Each structure stands twice: as structure tokens, then as C-alpha cells.
Amino acid sequence: MEQTNRLSIQRIAHFLLAITLFFYIVWAAQDILIPLGFAILLAFMLQPFVVFWQKRGLNRVLAIAVTFVMMMCVIIGAVFLLFTQMASIVAHAENIRISTDELSGLYLWIEETFHFPREKSQAWLKQNVMAMGDDISAYFGMLLSSSTAFIANFIVVLTYCFLILLYRTAFKNYILSQFYRDRKEDALQVMRQIQEIAQKYLYGLGLVIVILGTLNTLGLWAIGLEYSYFWGFFAAFMTIIPYIGTFIGAILPIIYSIITSSGGWQPFMVVIMFLAVQQIEGNFITPKVVGSSVKINPLAALLAMFIGWSLWGVSGVIMALPFVAIFKVICDNITFLNPIGKLLSSDIHYHEQIFFQKYRGEEYSWSSMFKKKKIEVLIEPKESKEK
């Protein structure tokens, strides 16, 4: 008996077709999957509160309802304060338009500091910055006008979340029923790890937003920038976009300070303040608060964000990191996918040789997926059988 392995073109084609169909369905069904994705993450966050109220004697429906009421009180309070200042910015947008004569102090500061001719800085600011007063007004006006669509989508997310929390035990039991009896405990452990990672990430992110919003608000208030509460928490809220969110959140307050200030010191101090807060956030706040709950290396996170952007836009960027972390947990618990889980980890640069030392077996090889085993039986000649 002789056994040979060959690559199966049919298996490769089936795999590529499955991957293509998967991404196409994810893109085509985004109107359904985006609210469902946010609802799953929200359900992970609210589940401990629901369990808390159930242990206090409430049935599951009432426990979910009480949890939702508490959450909505917090959200409505925060949104009311932010939208009040946003409405003030839109209402006073006409006052933001400043003539070039009022910026003479800024031109003088640029000329003395950077030796840049006043005429050139005047022309550049007029073309690139002065028109941004109208852009800021139009941007926030667009946010206010699109609030109806946002509220409708938010209601859909809440509905999904309510039903997920209500039927969570049935969903869990269905998933466990798909495994053999000796693997049910392992599958349950994986589900617990996924829930723990999602909760740690979401709770940590929320705490980081509160801390950064407070620091930003205090810093902008000390500098003297108007609407410091709104700009501070707006920049903090943008941290839900990993790595680049802090930079994006700082752009609008910097532009606003350039437009409304009569000298160059205030925009300069706003830039310095955001740089300082970003250093504190990157080196102290996020590592201490979020910790190692999401052990994903920056390259994998950025690739996931770009893929999420191409499929779902901003929503895909926001959900990229937690769902990649969930995917890593799955990889860490499936033998064949263990190398991929290790490749996604944040400490991969300390274990570069592990792929030669631990993952060299055929059970970890991608090529084994596409090989078909052909067993050839050498039949003895008829004459030898008769003998």
C-alpha cells in the first residue's frame, strides 16, 4: 500500500470561493450586520448588569428593562450636554468668520517665530483656514439634521441587544450542542473568554473616554478656548477609533482655536495640550486601564481597521479591534489556527522562532487543508494468487 499527498485544486477553489462569498455577504448585508455587530458588543457590556438585577429577584425581562433605563439616563444626559454646546456653535457660526485684519497678531507671531513672510501666511490662512468657519458650521448642521437617522439606527441596535440578552441562554446552548460531549467544556471556556475580553475592552474604553474628556476639558478651559467641554469630550470620544482617533479628534478644536483667536499663542497651546494628553493616554492611561485585554499587535489592528473601513466604513473601523480580539481567542483554541493566533499577538516580536519550534507539524500547515490523500493498492498478479 502506498500513500501520496497531492494538492487538490478543487479544495483550493472551494476555499477561495468561500472566502469571496463571505466578504461579499458581509459587504452586501451591512445594513443588517452593522446594527447586529454593535448590538452584540453592547450586549456583552450590559450582560453583567442584567445578571446583577436577576440575582436581586427580577425576572429576565425586567432586569433587561431596568438596565436599559439606567443606560439611557446616562446617554441622554451626556448627549444633552454635548448637543447644547453643539447648537451654540452652530447658532454663533456667523461670529466665527473673522476678517484678516483681526488676525494681524497671528501673522506677526508666525513671521517672528518661523520667519515666514506675512503676505504668504495671510494668503495661506485665507485660502485654507478662514473658509473652515463655514465648514465647521456646515459639519455640525449636518450632524444635527442627520440625528433622525441616527436615532432610528440606535433603536434598531437596542432592539437587537434586548433580544440577544433575552435569548442569550438559548443561543449559548445551541452553540454548545454543535460540539461533541467531550468538547462541550472547552467550547464553554472559549465562550467565557470571548465575553471576558469584550467586556474588559468595552469597560476600559469607556473609562478612558471619561478620563481623556476630563483632561481635555480642563486643559482647554485653562487655555481659554470656548466650548471647552464639548471640544474636550468630542476629542475623547474619537478614541473609539484605535490609533488615529485621538489625532482626528484634535483637528476640529485646533482649527476652531485658529479661527477664533486673535494671536498665535492659543492655537499653539491647544496643539501642545493635545500632544501632552496623547502621550499620557498612550503611555499610562490606556495600558493601565485597558491593560492587556486586547493582545493584538499594531500591524494586525491596522489591517483589520482598513478591511473594516472598506467593508463598513466608520462602523467597521470602530468594531475592527474587538472582533479581531474575539477572532484571536478562537484561533488560540483551535489547533489548526494556533499559528494565526500567535501571529496576531502583541508579543510576537519576542517569540519569532516559535513557528519553527512549535508549529512545524503538518497539523498546523495550510497546505494540509488543500491536500487529498490518495491510497494506491498494489494488486498481486492473478497468477501469484492461484499459486
CA-based shape: globular
Task: Report the major sheet.
Answer: 2 strands, antiparallel
Q: Kindly state the number of beta strands.
A: 2
Residues in helices, as a percent range: over 70%
Oligomer: single chain
Task: Give, in order, the helices and strands.
Answer: EHHHHHHHHHHHHHHHHHEH
Extract low-pLDDT stretches.
97-102, 374-387
Average pLDDT, rounded to a whole number, is 77
How does the helix and strand content classify structurally?
mainly alpha
Read across the widest sheet, the strand sequence of neighbours is 1-2
Rg value: 28 Å
Strand content: under 5%
Number of helices: 18
Query: How many angstroms does the end-to-end distance come to?
Result: 21 Å
Give a verbal description of the structure.
There is one protein chain. This protein has 387 residues and is mainly alpha-helical. The chain has a domain of 87 residues. It is built from 18 helices and two strands. It has a two-stranded antiparallel sheet. α11 packs antiparallel against α12 and α15 packs across α16. The protein starts with a strand and ends with a helix.
